[in-house]
Each structure stands twice: as C-alpha cells, then as structure tokens.
Amino acid sequence: TFSFGTDYRPASFNGQLFLHSQIHYTELTDVFEIDDSGERSGDPNIWLRYNGPNATVWVWENSFDWQLSPYLRVDAGVSYIRARYDEEIERVAGLSTHSFIKQPKWTGHLGLSYGNHGFFDAYALYSYTGTMLAVGQDADIWRHTPHFHVLDLGISKSLKDFAGIPELTLALGVDNVLDHRQK
User: Fold this and answer.
1) Among 8, 55, 81, 122, which is least packed by CB within 10 angstroms?
2) What Cα–Cα distance (Å) separates residue 107 from each residue in 26, 82, 115, 120?
C-alpha cells in the first residue's frame, strides 16, 4: 500500500477549519475467491476458497472539519474508490467483470455535532453510499444497486459522581432514522 496525503488549516479561519485529502493505492496479490458452484471441489455443498487474480484498489478521500463555535462542529467527507481485478472474473452466469462486487465508487458523509459536556452532547450524521455491483447468492442475477442514504441521530449526557460512579454517560441514539435500505 502506498499513500500520500496533505492537511491544511487556513489562517483566515483562526485555526477552526481543517482540510484533509489523501490518496491510497494498494496492490493485492492472489486475492481470495470463493467457489460456491462446486466445480473445484466436485461437491455443490462445499464452498472452496482459492487464490484468484491480482487486484488494485485506488482511493481518494477528502474531508473537512469546521469548529463553528465552542460547542458546534461540522465535518464532511467524500471518497472515490476504484477497486478492480487484473483479470475478468465470472461472478454469475452472464456476468464477467473486473470490478469488485459490493464496493461503491462514491461514499460521503456530513455530520453536525453539539458538544457541551456540562449540559448535553448531540449529533446528527448523514451518510451516502453510491451505486455498486451486487449479485444474488442463490440465483444467477446481478445488477447495479441504487444509491442510498442513512441518517443517524443521538444525544448523551455525562454525569459526574453519580451514585458512587466517577463518571456515567447516558446515551440515546437512533440509527437509520429514515429506514432507507439498499435494495
């Protein structure tokens, strides 16, 4: 794996804004593959793990973190991912591809957090997952999934010296508030 990144904190924002960008490049040798067809083992009930072709993964991540006030912070990020095998692999009948399955090209997030430890802490996190190639495990089907969004919300309160406990944090959160699922 090779990586290169840079961080930048502009003086014009009094050190309250932080920008980050990073590139990762990974070469994978003899990637694990699974034969669930029974062709390699001679028995359709036996799944066999074997070494497949080489692959490369290239990722570009970008993010920022902005402390808007002593209590309020915004952070966001976007990533582009390119993961490919050096040779085409037959995933299901009629689908041979260089692409990794279940690997979106684009992901992102936007978070807002309120941190006032004397009062309470809260957060809202929006996550985006782009389209990806998916295959059916029990049938020879494949398709590109639609993108999907997830919203998580939470609140917590820290209590000092509560009932003999030096610090106790009570938290309440709801993940995937909109109940949006990948189809």
Assistant:
1) 8
2) 18, 12, 26, 30
Hey, what are 8's tokens? 């930048």
Rounded Cα–Cα distance for residues 38 and 41 (Å): 5
Would you state the pLDDT for residue 183? 59
Question: For residue 50, what are the β-bridge partners?
Answer: 33
Q: How many CA atoms lie within 13 A of 23 on its CB side?
A: 4
Query: CA–CA separation, 74 vs 76, rounded Å?
Result: 7
Contact 126, 151 (CB under 8 A): yes
CA distances from residue 26 to 1, 56, 82, 89, 106 in whole angstroms, order as listed: 4, 6, 10, 19, 18
What confidence tens digit (pLDDT) does each residue in 73-114 have?
999 999 999 999 999 887 777 788 898 888 999 999 999 999
